[in-house]
Amino acid sequence: MPTMTRVEKLLSISSEPLAHMPPVNPELLRLYPLGPELLSILERKNGFYAFESALHVFPLTSERVNGASLAEWNSEALWRNGYGDLTSGLLFFAENILLDQYCLSASGVLRFNAETGGTKLMADSLENWADIILRDYDHETGWRFASRWQAENGPVPPGKRLIPKIPFFLGGAYSMDNLWAGDAVEGMRFKADLAIQKRNSPDGTQVRIVLTEKPTN
């Protein structure tokens, strides 16, 4: 029996596809060296959740009940323009439960810290990215938080993620008491504001926190 690739393994433990397949290869994927790899994954499963919804991979097409499509999530008008040039040259294709993003770049797959706008090179292929996710899914996806939250509060709805009441980079605890389920777009806009403030301020400068939605949990 052939050995299963790491991408195949990730797909095998993930949810049903989030959307039907589109009829054409989207132009935005042709701009990245790993675009064909991402297209191959999405042709097999067009968007999905994994690790109790901690990992969310965006579909190529939008079916509103399941949230944004890849193109919609990468729209400048949605949230990414709030980061200025920190998102230049990046295609955001997945996110973890705490809104850190996974993106394609000219050099490979990066992890994007939503609170600071910083990036870290993870892998030179989506196969190797999938391997890292599978080997360290708790750290990479925030699975432990997703699992505990949903055990206590029910499923995190599509389009929502867990957002810290006090940002992590400002000393907020990685604890359930510091998390609430909020709209993913509003969460990214909030974190973009933090990232720009941090970028433009010397160490020790106070950061202004404005909650755009009242926590309910």
Describe the protein.
It is a single chain. 29% of the residues lie in helices and 17% in strands. The chain has one domain (6-200). It has seven helices and eight strands, in the order H-H-E-E-H-E-E-E-E-H-H-H-E-E-H. The protein is globular, with a radius of gyration of 17 Å. The chain is of the alpha+beta class. The strands form two sheets. A six-stranded antiparallel sheet has the order 1-2-3-4-5-6.
Quick gist of this model?
This protein is α+β, with helices and mostly antiparallel strands. It is built from seven helices and eight strands. The chain has helices spanning 6-12, 35-44, 70-73, 126-135, 137-141, 143-153, 184-200; strands at residues 48-50, 55-57, 91-95, 101-105, 108-112, 119-123, 160-164, 179-183.
Q: Termini separation (Å)? A: 48 Å
**Low-pLDDT residue intervals, each spanning 5 or more residues:** 211-217
Strand content: 15-25%
Total domain units: 1
Let me know the average pLDDT.
90
Number of strands: 8
What is the string of helix and strand elements? HHEEHEEEEHHHEEH
* Helix share bin: 25-40%
Count of alpha/pi helices: 7
Q: Please state the oligomeric state of the protein chains shown.
A: single chain
- The rough form would be described as globular
| Major sheet | 6 strands, antiparallel
Strand line-up of the largest beta sheet: 1-2-3-4-5-6
Structural class: alpha+beta
